[in-house]
Amino acid sequence: MQTCYSGTAVRAAERTLLDAGQGEALMRRAAWGLATVVLRELRARGPVSGTTVAALVGTGNNGGDALWALAFLRRRGVDAVAVPSGERMHQAGLAALLKAGGRVAHAVPDSAVLLIDGVLGTGARGGWEPPRVPEGAAVVVACDLPSGVDADTGHVAGGVIPADVTVTFGALKTGLVVGAGAHAAGRVEVVDIGLGPHLGAPDVSSVECEDALAVFGPPAWDDHKYSRGVLGVCAGSDHYPGAAVLVCSSALATGLGMVQYAGPERAADLVLAAHPEVVAGPGTEGKAQAWVVGPGLGSDKDALSRLNEVVAACVDAGLPLVLDASALALVELEDLARLRSAGCDVALTPHQGELLKLVDRLAPEIADGFADLAKADPVAAARRTAETLGAAVLLKGSTTVCAAPDGQTFVQNEGGAELATAGTGDCLAGLVGSALARTSGDGQRSTVEKAAAAAWLHGTAGKRAAEGGPFGSSRMPVAVQTVLAER
Ligand SMILES: NC(=O)C1=CN([C@@H]2O[C@H](COP(=O)(O)OP(=O)(O)OC[C@H]3O[C@@H](n4cnc5c(N)ncnc54)[C@H](O)[C@@H]3O)[C@@H](O)[C@H]2O)[C@@H](O)CC1
Ligand SMILES: Nc1ncnc2c1ncn2[C@@H]1O[C@H](COP(=O)(O)OP(=O)(O)O)[C@@H](O)[C@H]1O
What we know:
Blueprint: E1 2-4, H1 7-19, H2 23-43, E2 52-57, H3 61-74, E3 79-84, H4 91-100, E4 103-104, E5 112-118, E6 139-143, E7 165-169, H5 179-185, E8 187-191, E9 204-206, H6 209-215, E10 230-234, H7 242-252, E11 258-262, H8 265-274, E12 279-281, E13 290-293, H9 301-317, E14 321-324, H10 326-330, H11 333-341, E15 346-349, H12 352-362, H13 370-376, H14 378-389, E16 392-395, E17 400-403, E18 409-412, H15 424-438, H16 447-466, H17 476-486
Bound molecules: ligand NAX and adenosine-5'-diphosphate.
């Protein structure tokens, strides 16, 4: 499990050490870590001595880090050039650079093979417009975070220089794993500067391979089909029959004990043609241990009565439930309350558009300004919705945010934009359903952690599928199998 801290929490941890008079030591540790990564990048490309490294240097401590790093690099024979972005620079850092034989210039030299972005770190407020930098050849290494990225949210209000590598100090920051911030950061390396004991609880976590495999692992030697998880799927309609196939196929690709399909004949026939092992019928009776309801259900009376039947089945047996797509537009507050009272774990899986509609309809008390919040701070938006509706929320997008009503939050970034194609959400619903079915009765992990494990598998499978060129969502189940087979 990877953990991240908000920029605000990291600043608070720093403050404790600054107040204890350790400011310069912290900055030198950070700068040494930055210089080490820069040296590694230079060595990977050729000789170090004589090459030009430039740094865009801001007015605060982020600029100070960059100046100290340039000073260390100068001592390795690098032509170290500071390019100030404002009227002042960190005094001790500048003195160290000049003493080491570095120089100051007013523009990034064309000869620079590597550019350090040291303009803004955790002290940034609002947007920023980067200066012109020579195009092309230079590797960009961001100091702490790419300038202009909000360290708490990942929001980029103005411009940003996309980094190849970000060397971040003290702890991985939430802003480097969410949305535009994650995209701008490139590869992230964390330099330990001794903040650990002062950091407190993490802000968000990310499920990694071994955490996901603990949910989607192989069967135990004594498993039988009813102990490996039985997933009920209520998806598809005469109008959207394919959704039923996508949900069932992706769930089966994880190696469940059984998939039970409840839906109309046309969709059921397609499911059975693709997977004769599915047990199909019009209703919910059977041995399901979790349900997925919603993909391709439509919005008519029939869709509503199918949703009601699944909700009733879950309430009766205390089963976990994934509400996706059409179900998000049909479910009522009373349904969520009944599910909660029956002890059912519920995961809502909206994309941004569905989230806004859901909040407008079921949580008007938080709707004011919510669209702006969802854009600028998807973690806060998912958290607020989960807390208000009392259900786990998996918010889909370039970053997938999984938030629980108690604030526990996972952020997953494995997938790329190749996943932006019709039906991949249906596949994800099948994976979340599978995670809930196969771990039903396992009190070890929260619903939101299981949903995050499914998002890991979905994103990783998306990347795997993309290796074979552009793809449609029907290729996802095979990619899911491949990912699980390779681990
Ligand atoms: N305090 C310390 O000793 C340590 C700080 N660290 C570094 O210090 C950074 C934080 O330093 P600061 O608190 O000085 O903050 P920054 O250096 O991130 O930014 C503050 C400066 O930028 C200006 N500024 C803010 N927003 C701007 C905008 N939108 N456009 C243009 N200028 C803007 C401010 O007026 C101020 O001069 C961290 O990101 C990290 O790089 C590390 O060295 C670790 C130790
Ligand atoms: N730019 C992107 N980068 C990474 N993942 C993406 C991107 N766009 C969409 N996705 C993922 O693709 C899936 C799309 O789901 P959804 O919007 O429900 O589509 P559909 O309803 O067509 O199945 C989600 O898992 C989402 O996180």
